[in-house]
Amino acid sequence: MKTKAEAVIIGGGVHGCSIAYHLAKKGWKDVVLLEKGTLACGATGRSVAGIRHQFGTEINVRLAKESVKRMENLEEELDYNSSIELLQNGYLMLAYSEEELDLFRCNRDLQRNIDPHNMTEILAPEQAADLVPGLNLEGLFGASFNRRDGHASPFHVTQAYADAATRLGVDIHTGVEVAKVKKEKDRVTGIITTTGQEINAPIVIGAAGAFTKKFGEQVGLDIPVVPERHQVAVTEPLEMILGIMVISFAHGTYFKQTPHGSLLLGVGDPEGEVKDFNERSSWQFLYDVVQKTTFHWPALREVNIIRQWAGLYDMTPDSQGIVGRTPVDGFYLDLGWSGHGFQLAPAVGQVMAEIISGETPFIDVSCMCLERFERGELIPEPACV
Amino acid sequence: MRIEDHPIIKFKRGKPVSFTFEGRQIEAFEGETIAAALHAAGVRVLSHSHNLKRPRGFFCAIGNCSSCLMKVNGAYNVRICVEPVNEGDRVEMQEGRGDIIAQA
């Protein structure tokens, strides 16, 4: 491993790999990415990997618009010889109260204001049932739908960025865990791994989700991020019966069907979860996910669940990412996406590369800076679970 | 093919039942699995692989391998190696992964 680099990225999830690619594309010759496990082994690979335009804050709508556009052509852009398994048939958000539907209308108006071509529409319950045959209409007030949304494989998207970054000269090391970010005076000077190897670098980028908090502490920054376990159940493969991704904020549920045929059923329990790094799956979840998803879609009652997993959201006080430079020179952050980060990685990777290169980013993300918490300038995202 | 006599294990067979497989009448004993009854009746191909459509036979016999998924009384993806046979069961080979929407 190198002992010197221009920049070290901590974390081999989709954000770390996207930053690596975008830096290398800009001509950075000496970038090192360190991942303690394998690529996409953390929150990225454990997500259900929905992709959507349907957000409720201006910054996310802008990032999402750019990101979806890139996902559509990602295999070409990155010269990836496999498929990212993008299924772009739409993303349905179920509203179980008039207030929720009003919020969706509000979000749609915001999206349309920012992008006149935005395709988000508000559907009546019956129209939603056309998209999900057999959907339970009980308590359903309507839905928000965008046919240009969908989902992809988080592993393939990450691998595509990692492969492209490697071809452009980035050194990616898996199985290498960073123990410490080094700092002298007011700037970072590199990292030390858990086996004592050092890499001296003037720039360190924290993209390790909730695990980034400790690196912040080492350089004297309080990063207000906490891990929150969310779990996913996998059914046996079925014929394709669900082309779209479905989500309910009121029930904390979301589900999709992968091209392989398995349904991925997710439920979060933000109130009940202890905020620690527990990544084990639980039987309580299994009970919960069965109750909730068969409520939405009774057709699932006879379907067998074959396995389950757990992963960690990196939650911030306003459920928004923390992006860009910090008060410590050379220390940059890209984390805290609170459960909707996968889909934004294409745009955020470029934004990060531009900020790190000292350029004006093509999307202004200054509202997502770390200092917003001290200043009390939170930007709560209403459209997330 | 059935083992009729075994030096150690005593077979206590249930009463005879009959069911249909692909429309054909098959005799079995209560307490057997559907797969055991089919095996006794000489059925060796239980399904086909999804991509190359190659035949799949009686393999794990403990409900793990998905080689024996069939449609039983209209329900898809039944693991017949762990599903007891019942009088009058309608058992069919399953093509594909099961369309639960069409089923409902």
Describe this structure in words.
The complex is a heterodimer of chains A (385) and B (104). Chain A has 385 residues and is α/β, with parallel strands linked by helices. Helices cover 29% and strands 25% of the residues of chain A. Chain A has two domains: 171 residues, FAD/NAD(P)-binding domain, CATH 3.50.50.60; 151 residues, D-Amino Acid Oxidase, Chain A, domain 2, CATH 3.30.9.10. In chain A, the strands form four sheets. An eight-stranded mixed sheet of chain A has the order 5-6-4-14-15-16-13-17. The two termini of chain A are 40 Å apart. Chain B is globular and about 45 Å long. Chain B is mainly β and 104 residues long. Chain B has a five-stranded mixed sheet, covered by helices on one side. A two-stranded antiparallel ribbon of chain B has the order 3-4. The chains are: A alpha/beta (385), B mainly beta (104). At the A-B interface, loops of A face strand 6 and helix 2 of B.
Gist of the model:
The complex is a heterodimer of chains A (385) and B (104). Chain A is of the alpha/beta class.
Helix residue percentage of chain A: 25-40%
Structural class of chain B: mainly beta
**CATH topology title of the largest domain in chain A:** FAD/NAD(P)-binding domain
Radius of gyration of chain A: 20 Å
* Helix and strand pattern of chain A: EHEHEHHEHEHEEHEEEEEHEEEEHEEEHH
Shape of chain B: globular
Main sheet record of chain B? 5 strands, mixed
Set out the fold topology.
The complex is a heterodimer of chains A (385) and B (104).
Chain A: E1 7-10, H1 14-25, E2 31-35, H2 43-46, E3 50-51, H3 58-72, H4 74-77, E4 91-95, H5 98-114, E5 121-123, H6 125-131, E6 142-146, E7 150-151, H7 154-167, E8 171-174, E9 178-184, E10 187-193, E11 198-200, E12 203-206, H8 212-218, E13 226-235, E14 245-248, E15 253-257, E16 263-268, H9 283-296, E17 305-315, E18 322-325, E19 331-335, H10 345-356, H11 372-375
Parallel strand pairs in A: 1-2, 1-12, 2-8, 4-14, 12-19
Antiparallel strand pairs in A: 3-7, 4-6, 5-6, 9-10, 10-11, 13-16, 13-17, 14-15, 15-16, 18-19
Chain B: E1 16-21, E2 24-29, H1 34-40, E3 47-48, E4 55-56, E5 69-72, E6 75-79, E7 90-93, H2 100-103
Parallel strand pairs in B: 1-7
Antiparallel strand pairs in B: 1-2, 3-4, 5-6, 5-7
